Fold these 4 entries.
Entry 1:
Amino acid sequence: LGGWHRVALSPDGTTTLEQLADRAPKRTVVVVGAEGPGLGAEVRTACDELVGIPVRPGTDSLNVATAVALALYRLAG
């Protein structure tokens, strides 16, 4: 995807959604995996960065539809 910034949503992302939103390029692709197994290693490697959405301690992760909705809303603004 030439010219696109590839972002993988993952609970173990090293960048937070807020950090990304502060500097996200206009041409950003958000990549998500299936609930449970998440993204495979090959897909994660192909992305430019892993982005996480902080959740309360003791919470495993958000469901994928909720995570995508939050990411798209935050990146659109």
Entry 2:
Amino acid sequence: MKNKTDSVKIINSIINFLNEDFDIKTSLEMTAKDLRLNKKKIEEIDNNILYDGINSLIVSINLFINQEMKTVISNNFKTLRINEKIRYLIFSRFEIIDKFFDRKSIFKLVVKQKSLSKVGVMLFNISDEIWYLSGDKSTDFNYYTKRFILMNIYSASFFYFLRDNSVEYSKTREFIDKQISNVLKFGKLKSNFLNFIYSNKT
């Protein structure tokens, strides 16, 4: 637990300095000074977390969140419907972000990447992890369709989460519910439309 706490403290410090417009090297140096890190720890951070600057820092943060996500899955999780699992996992991820980091600081860090392609890859990986934890085993075209749809739901929900000051983020819960419901309705309409087309061909 101590190692996890220390890692979070180090990452948050680096993020704060980066968001004050210091570069990676200076942010690490100032973090090392503030937290009194020894040379070995500095080299470990540089080699394992900051080897590709902001990009690898964001990857490390997401890996940490993914590990925490596995701890929030209870025994009755398997009994939930797939849409309930997705809803639960999206919100759980937001709760983890808010518990260990600052949601607005994380958003500023992502913006600093200044690369839509890298943000896209990040969102795809987040979506893929959520589907994986939900038990999805698809390997066909649906594999990508599901993840691209979830990318949109997740990003829209996260933007809403950034501005949500309601008690226990109840408004974000409602927003996620609405986003998923809209997708389910669209899926049902699409299915009915295709059935209508094919039925009229015979």
Entry 3:
Amino acid sequence: NYSLEWDVNLKANRWSCYQMYDIHLGKNVERKNKFQPDPNIPKNEQTSLNDYKGSGFSRGHLCPSGDRVYSAAQNEQTFYLTNMQPQIQGHNGGAWGKLEDKVRIWAGKCDTLYVVKAATIDKKEYICNQADFEIMAQKEGQGKSLHFSGIVPKFFYMALLAYDKSTNTYRALGIWSPHYNKSEPEYITIKELQNRTGIDFFCNLNDDIEQAVEEKLDDNFWN
């Protein structure tokens, strides 16, 4: 269904990744909003529903419910808390939600879309502090202050790789989304995304293919 890396020490998702095919674009089930702990990880090593309660942050999907409406089991798994990052709703339902819609459009234009979604949890300058919370609350138009017991990222990002079987070609795109209300995503190469995150995306490609797709953007495909 999807894979993720969970940092036990930070109690934060490092990334969620999955694939999109035509079959995933069919809608067979409705979302149930059953947010729950991940049964594969001890409860004391992951975030809890109480961490989000009253914090002012929404439980922001990485592998979204909307990408997994083919079956009830797939959809339910997207509501594991290890697949979440704390997001202000203006970002979660705004720029991030619009990007999720675009991913589904791009998935319909290729045979396989490889998707990595994540947020910045390592670099100190990429993690929110109390001053950032106050700025976020102002931009969100919230009267109350924001707080969260764990890490809140300043940036969310996506790494996408589209494969077309008929021509045996790959296209890649990086997306960098600042975490605030009405933010404007930045569309960048995978190479630039790797420079910012320190993660080697799509490393299983042949080296010559990997280098070519990571340094180029196909504007006609990604529109």
Entry 4:
Amino acid sequence: ITRQVRVFAERGERFEWKLHAHDRPPDLPRRLRAAGFVPEDEETVVIARVDEVAGRPLLPEGVSLREVTDRRDLDRIAAFEQTAWEGGSDHGWIAESLEAERTADPQGLSIVVVEAAGAIVCAGWVRFERGTEFATLWGGATLPAWRGRGIYRATVAYRASQAAQRGFRFIEVDASSDSRPILERLGFSAVTTTTPYVWSPPTVPAAEP
């Protein structure tokens, strides 16, 4: 913990320690809090077979899904995430992070958006974890006005199909309380829980004039 905090403090960057329910030692949550980490909402790790989830995405009329790679679209995703989560922490880092990841390994990440009337209403991405049988789903936020129409479900089916085409056998998701019921209806099974513990650099006050 001390080593990681030191590295990110030197870089002036926030970072997340993803704590799973089965992690050891048992007092790890206390140790993280003592080091300045702040726990966020608990998520449930769910897993499904790719061949049971993959399929043609079914979208409402007037809604389309496409893969994106351009920085302009990544900036649009960052702005969308800010809206979808109704403010909160700054989501501007998402564009930088996704662009850097794609630059390092273009085949290891696929990003999709769902749009209506030219505006993003849902966005998600899938990571193809090299050396494993797992692809992992991330993002998936949907604007409140567009929830309950099968849009998130369509992105899951599409990304699972991408994983199937690459020979992956399983899909894993760290599911929020909103996503978990949808994913379980699609055949995902819960295996553990995870809690993001986030460390942020301390604020350095401006020097006196």
